[in-house]
Amino acid sequence: MATPDTHTAPAKATDRPRGLQYFPIVLFASAMGFSGTTIAAMRIEPLLGLPPAFSLLLLTLTSLLFIVQIFLLLYRVFAYPEEVRRDFDHPVRMNFFGAVSISFMLLAAAYLDVAPSVAAVLWWIGAPLHLLITLAVLRKLIVQSRFEIVHYNPAWFIPIVGNLIAPIAGVAVAPPDVNWFFFSIGIVMSVVYIPMFFYRIYFHNPIPLKLLPTFFILMAPPAVGLVSYVKLTGQFDGFARVLYGFAFFIGLLLVVLFPMFYRVPFFLSWWAYTFPSAAITIATVLMYHETGVEAYRYLAYVQMIALLILLVDFSRRTLGLMARRELCVKED
Question: Which residue range(s) make up the domain with 141?
Answer without folding.
Answer: 16-323
